[in-house]
Description:
Its cofactor is pyridoxal 5'-phosphate. Pfam families: Aminotran_3 (PF00202). This protein has helices at residues 4-15, 70-81, 91-103, 116-131, 171-174, 185-195, 218-231, 250-255, 281-284, 303-316, 321-343, 368-371, 376-388, 409-424, and strands spanning 37-41, 44-47, 52-55, 109-113, 135-139, 152-153, 160-161, 163-164, 177-180, 199-204, 234-238, 261-264, 275-279, 348-352, 355-359, 391-392, 401-402. The protein is an alpha/beta fold. It has two domains: 4-68 and 319-424, Aspartate Aminotransferase, domain 1 (Alpha-Beta Complex), CATH 3.90.1150; 70-316, Type I PLP-dependent aspartate aminotransferase-like (Major domain) (Aspartate Aminotransferase, domain 2, 3-Layer(aba) Sandwich), CATH 3.40.640.10. An eight-stranded mixed β-sheet has the order 4-13-12-11-10-5-9-7, with helices on both faces. It has a four-stranded mixed β-sheet with strand order 1-2-3-16. Strands 14-15-17 form a three-stranded antiparallel β-sheet, covered by helices on one side. A hairpin with a 2-residue loop joins strand 1 (37-41) and strand 2 (44-47). The radius of gyration is 21 Å and the shape is globular. 4'-deoxy-4'-aminopyridoxal-5'-phosphate binds at residues 60, 115-117, 120, 143-145, 205, 209-210, 238, 240-241, 265. Residues 60, 115-117, 120, 143-145, 205, 209-210, 238, 240-241, 265 line the site of 4'-deoxy-4'-aminopyridoxal-5'-phosphate.
Amino acid sequence: xxxxxxxxxxxxxxxxxxxxxxxxxxxxxxxxxxxxxxxxxxxxxxxxxxxxxxxxxxxxxxxxxxxxxxxxxxxxxxxxxxxxxxxxxxxxxxxxxxxxxxxxxxxxxxxxxxxxxxxxxxxxxxxxxxxxxxxxxxxxxxxxxxxxxxxxxxxxxxxxxxxxxxxxxxxxxxxxxxxxxxxxxxxxxxxxxxxxxxxxxxxxxxxxxxxxxxxxxxxxxxxxxxxxxxxxxxxxxxxxxxxxxxxxxxxxxxxxxxxxxxxxxxxxxxxxxxxxxxxxxxxxxxxxxxxxxxxxxxxxxxxxxxxxxxxxxxxxxxxxxxxxxxxxxxxxxxxxxxxxxxxxxxxxxxxxxxxxxxxxxxxxxxxxxxxxxxxxxxxxxxxxxxxxxxxxxxxxxxxxxxxxxxxxxxxxxxxxxxxxxxxxxx
Length: 426
Ligand code: PMP
């Protein structure tokens, strides 16, 4: 019998490239039919066939309170009743800027946009405009949205001038993007020693969540901060994923490193499209209408989206929120590790705040190269067994997972039980 999910996917492929509006949703990496959802509540989701799941994607991070949180839904309804959009300033945007500035003090000035891609793309333009330099540094395996200059991966060698990793990106655009190895302090030092004064900015995920989960080494972050200061290079923390996810003040609070600029997204929209970029006032002052760097958006600071975000940010400030989220995520990771050990499967896992990484390798990877060594086919088998048991994980061995405040101890226990079955099949 063909399921409703299968029917929807077959029809979608006629009209939507690959049947999806964002590639990872297509299950290309794990195979099978993507799940089409029709409802979410708290930690749970229901698909088009009525099957129930415990959700560990949480819309790739934003749903930190779980799905359809009543206070967020009420805030959205109230804002919507006062018009969906003005294309003019509102007091809500000011409230959001004040809140972001209070919780992430390095963001002295903030501009709102509608996605993480817009935030990183704009931050880089500002950094280039401010420094009057063209070259930028990113790290292999970090994802910063799909702006041309950021769709670049590294080749081998100490210093690799970028080659686009997507068709449609001119080589000339990618040529200004240098890609280095994450957590490789020596490579960073060597690069700055040779061309430090030509580098406009360094952008990184301060905890990487786009090549599974990779944790930064403190020495790497400290060296990066010192080199950027020394060479007048703008240090951009892309906290689109980690902002309000690993700690209330983001990864910069957790690791005690202050960037010059920060990008946000995901949690600050509570599930609606909001991004932000901000940083030192001196740097942000180059933006139009004050300065020569242009950036704009018809729906930027949209009142409905900002209301969802403000209510989410109000609720995550509850005392003990991140302690509880972190403890729950640790409990999940520990339970999965114990289940794998019992089954004799080479497996490791770790978490930071409400983000976690699962690796089908005996030790936790610290770089893209190490991550690529993980057993992808074991992950795929594990993924499908978990999905059958109603546990919805990211459909790729290279995605991080997310726990929300709505996940209960019973959810975690059910997940670990499903994992025992899954590990036994490997
Ligand atoms: N930066 C990071 C660190 C991200 O994880 C993402 C999206 N996963 C982006 C930027 C791009 O955000 P968006 O998908 O909202 O454009």
